[in-house]
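Researcher: Next sequence.
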Amino acid sequence: MARFTVGTSPSHPLGPRPVHRLGPQKTDGEQPRGAAPEPAKPVGPRRRWAWGRGRARGREPSSQARASDTPPPPPHHLPIDLLDAADTARPQASLLDRRLPEGERQLRGSGQGPYFYIGGTNGASIISSYCKGKGWQRIEDSRREDYKLKWCEVKCRDSYYSFREGEQLLYQLPNNKLLTTKIGLLSALREYSRVVSRTHETSPCAQAKKDTTSALEELAWTSPGCFGPQRALKMEEFFPETYRLDIRDEREAFFTLFDENQTWICKPTASNQGKGIFLLRNQEEVAALQVKTQSIEDDPIYRKMPFRAPQARVVQRYIQNPLLLDGKKFDVRSYLLIACATPYMVFFGHGYARLTLSLYDPHSSDLSGHLTNQFMQKKSPLYMLLKEDTVWSMDHLNRYINDKFRKTKGLPRDWVFTTFTKRMQQIMAHCFQAVKSKLQCKLGYFDLIGCDFLIDENFKVWLLEMNSNPALHTNCEVLKEVIPGVVTETLDLALETFQKSLRGQKMLPLLSQRHFVLLHDGEADLWPRPGGSRGALRPPPPLRAAPRPGARTPAPPRGPGGAHARPRPPGRGPDGGAQSREPGAERPREGAGGPAREPSPGLAEEERKSAGHRGS
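Model: Next structure:
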């Protein structure tokens, strides 16, 4: 039986105060009832972390316990290397874990993290299973900052403000809107085209390069890993003609050139799932749009709006001759993965084909026959009955193209996994190069972007748009086969590249790379480090004023590389030289390389995504 006693604390700054102690009932030598109580020890501030066995609140451990127990560090000070915990369900991840020092492996069941947070439901079950399989613990409070992985559907400014570079992993680059909004992508591609054309025109060897690349383009395609001089893509070759409605000159140009024989599609810049989209087919519809935009612009309230959100729209030429699968329109969802931002490690991933439920009719006003995303198809009463027909695997698409079009169109065998895959990789690499110098990059940022491609009846490939937070739902059999693998390999690559960058190790080869194909190896962008084998051009020395006569010349800074050595990114060691090989790829399951790297730059400014984003 326990006894509750009350003592006093004479040392308290405000005078004696009662002190409560809870202890066992005394039997032998008990103090007589009514005697003066023993002076109580002053009670100090409660410890924030109560570590060690047998330590209770308000009671110090025994001397033996203090000698034998070493309190572990708080959870948010756990070494970041614990992120490499092995996932025994996957041999590749287990192999990676066995290569780590013993002390860097996460002990299962220890109850000490690492912690992960998932905001939203898009792919939440897959991400949660992945992390729990590594022994991590899920937290529900979005305000906690002691996480090691945070995956959110909607970006939050506070997450980036409190982000600890080199210690945490955070899904979505802060300004991925340069790629994932209609105006952002349009502006980036336009500026990059201007930069590339200006560079080619001013180069003294421009004509020689043009002749060389023209000859190379006539050669048969072998593998994306065969890098060589390639002609930079032209925007009009893969991106439909597009105009911005928020710029007066572009808006007026579109209204002037509109022809009754053409169909245009009007899209909000920062929405998804087909929301806010409509077609423009005749002069009456265009005139109504013109009146609406003009009335909004004349509104004095609108003029004071900083971003002018109501007019954040684009009009894009509609592809009226799409390739059809059994009479139905389709597009292809592929993935652009930025697994690491310091250095950039960018990958291409195959996805799936999305089909409409209804037969294609270019004159129909029903958007579900023009837009292929699942959100639009679910509106059909036949969706639950025919939903398996709305998604095809890439193997299914390849077999269909081989059977229906290979002979009649003179296509190479497995056109989907050769020519089409190469073209998608080239377009993705071109878009990444357009924004590479403008993306906000920190060690720990990673992003998975959905890219939608359309094939016309002439087998020309068009990029329709790029989407942040792509849909990761598994509501049909094909998606159950594709999506978990995409998410798992995304996290595997993000973890492995994060650890290698943190330790200054060479990125390649990547043990966790299975189906994703390398598009861009950022180690090639780094400046040569002491002992590195890869050479790169150094920048011109900074301009300095001519020294005054008799002035002492300042000594160059010490250290390898002299005055012009570029500072290494966080965690890059002197032995972290880049590996020159990039894997090539034909079929997705046999993996390998990507298209050639091109010069960088380009940018655009844009309105941000709406807060209700749920994947597209």
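Model: Residues 75-152 form one domain. The longest strand covers residues 328-341.
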